[in-house]
Amino acid sequence: MSRYLLKFSKQGGIRFISHLDLLRVFQRTFRRSGLKLSYSNGFNPHAKIGFAMPLSLGFESRGDYLEFETEVDYTPQEAAEQLNAHMPPGLKALMCRKLKETGKTAAAAVLRYAEYTAEYRGEQDPVRLLQERLEAFLAQDSILSVRYSKKKRKDVETDIRPNIHSMSLIHEKKLILTMMLGAGNTGSLNPQILMKEFCAFCGLDYEESDWLYTRKEMYFADAKGHLKPLYEFGG
Amino acid sequence: MNLFDRIEKLLTKVNKPASYMGGELYEVHKAPDETEVFWGFCFPDLYEIGMSYLGLQIIYHVLNSQKGVYCQRLFAPGADMETLMREEGVPLFTLEDKQPAAEMDILGFTLQYELSFTNIVNMLDLAGIPFYSRDRSEEHPIIAGGGNCSFNPEPLADIFDFFMPGDGEEVLVQVTDLIRRSKKENWSRPQLLQELARIEGVYVPSFYEAQYDESGRMTGHQKLYGAAPDQIVKRFVMDMDHVPFPLHPVVPFTDTVHNRTVVELFRGCTRGCRFCQAGMICRPVRERSPEQVRQYASESLQNTGYDEMSLLSLSTSDYSQIEPLVRDLMADCKAVKAGLSLPSLRLDSFSEEVLHEIQEFRKTGLTFAPEAGTQRLRDIINKSITDEHIYTAAEKVIRMGYTNIKLYFMIGLPGETDEDLDGIAEIARNIVSIYRRVSERKGKFNVTVSVSNFVPKADTPFQWAAQDSPEEFNRKHYYLKDRLKKLKNVSYQYHGTETSYLEAVFARGDRKVCASLIRAWELGCKFDGWTEFFDYSRWLQAFEDTGVDPDFYSRRARGEDEYLPWEIIDCGVSKQYMLKEMKKAMQGIQTQDCRKGCTGCGVKRFVECPVYELSANYRQVEA
User: Fold this and answer.
1) Residue B47 CA to chain centroid, in angstroms?
2) ipTM score for this prediction
3) Is A32 on the interface with B (CB under 8 A)?
4) Domain B260-362+592-623 in CATH 3.30.2160.10
5) Strands of the sheet with B490-494, listed across from one edge
6) Closest Cα to residue B383, out of B602, B599, B591?
C-alpha cells in the first residue's frame, strides 16, 4: 500500500464542475489509467482518494491537492504520467510525491493558507479606486461580513480580517489581486467574500461574473512555523 | 465580446453550468477549414437527459467518423439559462465550439417523446430560425427529425424539412453526403429537398398535401411533387455486429440520469404486445453477438472509466444467449470492480441464474411489468405472461432476499373494466402474502404499484382505439388508490392524466395540431414532460385559440377504413396485420411470440428476419 500527494491544475471550462463531480472525474480517470487504488472494506467499498480542500464552482486552480492510496507501489512519476495520459481536458497532474505510509496525517489536516488571484474581466475601470483604498481596507481592525446561514436560518456576522494574511494588487495588462487567505481547520475565507467586502468598501458594485478566481497554491506551517507549499508536506 | 466569452459570463450565474460548457472527455473537435458539413444534433430536453441517451452517442459517432463532417451537440437550456440567454441576446449554441445553431448546415432533432415538441419550437426560437419550413430558405439550416415520433411526424410536418424513420446509421451518412454536394454545387433549397426525397426512407412532408373530408378526418396525402415516393419505408440496418458503435462515448463531467456505459444488446422485440409502439416499429429482432457485446463492454468500461455497465434492448432477458452472456459479463465486470445492471427483464423469461449473478454485486429492487391486472386483459393486450409467472417470479426473488418489488401496470387499456383494476390490487396483495409465507426475515418489504395511463400510439394494433378521458383516468386512479391503501406494504404511484391526454393528441395527430403546438409555445408552454412546467390550462387555451378539438385525436375511435395520418410512413409492419391483431384483441385471442414461428407481420416484405433460438430459461418456462 502506498500513499501519494498529487498537485494538479483545473483550468478552462472544467472550472464549472462542482467538487463532487470532480471527485467522480478523478475516480474515472484512475480507472482508465489502470492505477490500482485501494478500496475501503465494507458493503459499498469506496476508493481511497480525497482532496485537501474543495474548490468553489467557477474557480480555476493551479495548486490543488489530491491524496490517494494504491494497492500497488508506483513511482510518483509513473503515477503522474499515467494520470496525465488519461485526464479529461482541463485537468493536469503537476507534481506527485509519496507520503509516509505510517503516521497518516492528511494534507487536509495541516493546511493553513491558500493563495488566490482574482482577475477582473468586467468592462469598468476600477483600478485606481481599488488601488487607492486597499491600504485603508487592510488597516481596519475588523472587517465584518454578513452572510445568511442556512443552519441558523438567519444572517450571521463574521469578522473576516483574521483570515486575511495578505492582499496586494497588480496592474499590468490585467487587473489582478493576489490574496493569501486562511484555509483548513483553523479557519478559512473564500476570496469571493473578501472581494465583495472590498468592493463595497470602495463603493463599487460587485458583479460575480466580472471576476475570475484562481487558486494558486496551498500552504502549511512547518515545525518552525514557516509557511511552505503543501507539496513539501511529507505526511 | 465574442459568443464564447458571453456564454462563459452566463455560466457563473446558472445552476448546472457544466450542462452548457462542453469540453468533456471524448468530445470531438474539428477545424472549421476542414469542415464541409456542420451538423447540429439537437436533443429537445436537458443535457442530463440527452447525455444518457445512447442514440445521441451513436449518431455523434457515426457522423463525426465521416471526413469533413463536424457534428456538434445542442440541448434545450434550463429555464434559468434560457432567461439569461434571452436577456443577453445569446442564441442557442453548440456545446463544442459555442457556435450559433443558425450557422449549422443541418439541425437534426431526435424525436423521442411527444411532450418535448414545445422544446423543439423553443430551441428554434432561441436559434432565431423561423418555425415553418415554408418561411425558411437556403440561408437557414435544414431541419431534420428521426426517432420514434418520426413514425407519425404529421404534427411536425409544417416545421421540419424532412424525417428519417427507422435505423439512422446508414441514412444519416447518405443525407450528409447529399448536403455536402448541395453546398459545393450551390443547390437551391427545393433542389436539395427533391434530391433528399430520392433517398430511401426520407420523408419530405412539403411534397405532400394533407387531404381532409368535411368532418375533418384525413383522407390522404396528395403528392405535390411527382417524383416523391407514394409511401416511405422506414430504414433497416440488419447486421448489428457491423453497425458503427461508440466505444469512446462522450463522458459527461457531471451527474446525468445514468452514469454508466451502455452496450446495445439487440434491436426489436418479438413479443408483439399490442399497445407497444417500439415493439412494432423496431422489428425485426437483430441481436449483437455475445462475443461482440463482451468485447464492447470491456473496451467501453476501460475507455470511459465508468464503474457500471448496462445492456440496452427492449427486453433484455429475451436475448437468445442471455444466461452465458450475463455470466461472462459479470465475471468481466467483477475483475474491474464494476457493476452490471440489467434493465427490461421480463417476468416469464428472467432466470434465477441471471439474478443470482447480479445480486452478488448489489441487491436492489426489481421491477416487473405485468401491465394488466387480469389474465383476460393480458390476453387482449397480448402480454403473454400468466398469474403463475408473476407469483413464481415473485416467490423466487423474495426467497433470494429482495425486499422491493415494483410492478408496472397500465390503465385505460381497450376492453378494461373495474375488475381489471381489482386484479391489480389482487396481485399486489398476493405478492405481500407470498412474502409473509416464504420470507424468513421479518422487516421492511414493499410492493410498489406504478400505474401509467394508456396512450394509443400510431403503428400499433391499438392505433384505432379511443383513449379514456382525463376524468375517467382520474376516477380509475382514485378507485385503485382506495383499494391499495387498505393493503399493508403496498405503495402506489401514478402518472398525471393530463399529460397522457396531451401525449395522445400528438401521438396520433395530423398536421392541424401543429398550429396548437406553436400557439401553446407562444402561451409559454415548454418542458411539458416535467411536472413543474406542465400547464394544462395553457394547452386548453392553445387548442381553443387554434380551433382544434383535442378529443377528436385522443378520445375518438378510428374507423377501420379511415385513412390514418401516419400511413405515409410504412413502419415495416403492415396495416392489415395491425387490423388483424386489433380484431384478435377484441376477441381476447393471443398471438404467439414470433420467435416460435412467423406471425406474418409484414416485415418480411422488406427484409429477411434473422432467426434466433429461445434462451434456455425461456424454453424452460414454456415447458
Assistant:
1) 16
2) 0.91
3) yes
4) no
5) B366-371, B404-411, B446-453, B490-494
6) B591
- Mention every residue, 6+ apart, whose C-beta is less than 8 A from residue A191: A116, A118, A179, A181, A213
Asked whether this chain's domains B260-362+592-623 and B363-512+548-571 adopt the same fold, the reply is yes
User: Each residue's pLDDT tens digit in chain A (235 positions)?
Assistant: 899 999 999 999 999 999 999 999 999 999 999 999 998 887 777 888 999 999 999 999 999 999 999 999 999 999 999 999 999 999 999 999 999 876 667 888 899 999 999 999 988 888 999 999 999 999 999 999 998 888 888 899 999 999 999 999 998 889 999 999 999 988 899 999 999 999 999 999 999 999 999 999 999 998 888 999 999 987 6
Q: How far apart are CA B262 and CA B250, in angstroms?
A: 12
CA atoms within 13 A on the CB side of B192: 28
- CA-CA distance, B329 to B299, in Å (whole number)? 12
Q: Which of A10, A24, A87 to mutate to test the interface with B (most CBs of B within 10 A)?
A: A24
- State whether the Cα torsion B30-B36-B41-B42 is positive or negative: positive
> pLDDT for B511-555, tens place per residue?
999 999 999 999 999 999 999 999 999 999 999 999 999 999 999
Give start and end residues of each alpha helix (H) in B439-558.
Answer: 470-484, 497-507, 513-522, 536-545, 550-554
The three cell numbers locating residue B466:
379511443
CATH architecture label of B363-512+548-571: 2-Layer Sandwich (3.30)
Question: CB pairs below 8 Å between A and B: how many?
Answer: 64
Partner-chain contact A17 B27, CB within 8 Å: no
How many CB atoms are located within 10 Å of the residue B583 CB?
A: 12
The cell for B60 is 455523434
**Minimal Cα distance from B299: which residue of A?**
A32
What amino acid is encoded at B594 in this protein?
C
Domain ranges of chain B: 3-233, 260-362+592-623, 363-512+548-571
